């Protein structure tokens, strides 16, 4: 999101909070979110891809809604209107191609309108077909979940992304030799995938509330949280969405304050720190350990301010329209152990993995015929969860190692806590000694996390190795 | 209801908004009235927390060179090592000139000033010659004069002003954004030294009241902050210029064009060149010795090299220029050296004036000899 996007979104949310209530608010939020998917989508060098990627996002949302929500004759009229709005917005954005100087909301000119109508018709028929075969929806849900993950892997693994880009270029009649891994900048797919996967899992567990297509689309593509989260849960979102806080003035004020804090964090502090934060360019240029530590600390701070700044902006915009998105950060760098860090860093992602991977996995390992002691269960759970969190950022060795780094850290902390609990349960620690211990715990945690960023920030293990060598004065 | 909620409920949002807006407007007006940018520019992390830069800030690719072009001369000088507290036994030689002096495509330790310093020149009284690189990659004598006017505040013991013909035409004088964005200072130079430039030239950016507010000066303020931040990477890496592995070499085959700017053969006249800027420099430097140097140029052997020396210069105009300058220097008694052909053709990089490290070292040897000659004549 640029400053311009944020300014327009702020005005739009204030207008919604002031002028619209009930159904009108619902349709405005839906329309706004749909427009935002196209508007925020970055340009791609593959022809019309910056139009089709948002269309696929919307299509996936509609299909998941069809697969997860039972038929409800009571909402037939509303459903028709919502389908009309969704297809109307897509068609309108496509039609801006013919608006002359007013073209376009998308990064490049949309495709011809006939192509859009054909795609919408195919999607419509597909949707109807899915509704018709409701008896196999359970299998289709699994299939949809796998497809979402497959797309994710295609986008995040450079070699596959390159092949996909070459394929799409061929299809569009462009030179495949010019394909790059950055040709597929699918806006917010990581976050969308997590929202859709959670919906599928909750539908399989019959834990989903009843909501309309419009409500679900707004949840999945809610414009403040589209680019950088947080990853909300649909039942929580819909609850706020249906009964927003009525204190409009207070919401606006609190929301604006939060947006301002976010702007300060992201565009003033984080962007300034980015000028001397660790990156693949300066990792090879800095020679002295002291300077390497400085650029690494800067990266650590910059990453937090950048990400939490975006989160503040999202939460602020949500608050203005009366939707309290979940917090994503809670002073993570002040935590005195790694477990507490992961309870306060990217909270919604960690919670997602805890709920849908770590807990089911450890339950599975504890039960059945395994009869495993606690420590291998914790170790397997931590390694699986954390490496997958790492790979969620991109399928590279560095992200894998970063995940492993944290998995081992969490495991060691878990065992240490357990060991201490058994041994020093009744020992009273003097307050000053406790402060001393807390300070060193913080120091160790902060440095463990910060050193972990060396894997996260850089593209390869060789360059990360060089940085570690420099940091500890081992370089040539 | 908690006291916090009560307080929040008592907040009148329109009043708050009005107060915030009033304060913002007031601050902007105050800023425009006080005009604190020169003072703010002098606040610098350079020479305090981190070492000063060894050449003036300039870059088109800030993120790769940890450097940027800005127009606040106070900030530019504050970031330079010339602003550091001078050593007692230092003989301060300030080099002024264009991109050749600044060291385009050269590492910081390969510039003319760096090579002069590496020669360890020592005066009979024990002072060590310390050359400061105050070149700036723009070809304009008025720009050089502006830089000199700032350099004079930093206790120079000697000034070396390097130039080439391309810096002399009048249409080049106000061409640089650095000058255009320092209109008040350029006009002050004009009124002090009666330069032959139009003080109301439309190229000079005149600031209205709104342009002087915080909003109006946001770019300048951001640049000052960015210059400080890039300083950290400068200190960490010693990099202040992105030097590509490959670049297009200076042109060998030349056009048959005979005109130079708006000047036509057969003869170059004194009035065609901004000699007045050099005279102003001499006046400005007062008792401090000033040495003028016509810098080396690439002499081509390719197509049309019988008509032109290189991309910049037809032969007729450059020959006339050298002759003219030599006679003017003699007329006024200036210390002047013409090194136009003293560096071999293979020691030029991407233009007819940019030198390789070896070319730069060769020129440094010649200038070091001149410095020694000049200082031996000092009282």
Describe the structure.
- The complex is a heterodimer of chains A (476) and B (379).
- With 476 residues, chain A is mainly α.
- Chain A has 3 domains: 3-242, no CATH class; 248-326; 333-471, no CATH class.
- Chain A has 18 helices and no strands.
- Chain A has helices spanning 3-19, 22-40, 49-68, 76-95, 113-132, 137-156, 158-171, 189-204, 213-220, 234-242, 248-273, 289-320, 338-342, 347-366, 374-392, 397-423, 431-457, 461-471.
- In chain A, helix 12 (289-320) packs across helix 17 (431-457) and helix 15 (374-392) packs antiparallel against helix 16.
- The longest helix of chain A is centred in the middle third of the chain and has 32 residues, at 289-320.
- Chain A is globular and about 70 Å long.
- The mean pLDDT of chain A is 91.
- Chain B has helices at residues 3-10, 13-34, 37-42, 62-65, 73-78, 99-102, 112-118, 141-151, 177-180, 183-193, 218-237, 275-285, 315-332, 357-376, and strands at 90-96, 128-133, 158-163, 290-294, 335-338.
- Chain B has 379 residues and is α/β, with parallel strands linked by helices.
- In chain B, strands 2-1-3-4-5 form a 5-stranded parallel beta sheet.
- The mean pLDDT of chain B is 92.
- In chain B, strand 4 (290-294), helix 13 (315-332) and strand 5 (335-338) form a beta-alpha-beta unit.
- The longest helix of chain B is centred in the first third of the chain and has 22 residues, at 13-34.
- Chain B has a single domain (37-243, 251-376), classed as SGNH hydrolase (Rossmann fold).
- In chain B, helix 7 packs across helix 14 (357-376) and helix 8 packs parallel to helix 12 (275-285).
- The interface between A and B is medium-sized, with 19 and 16 residues.
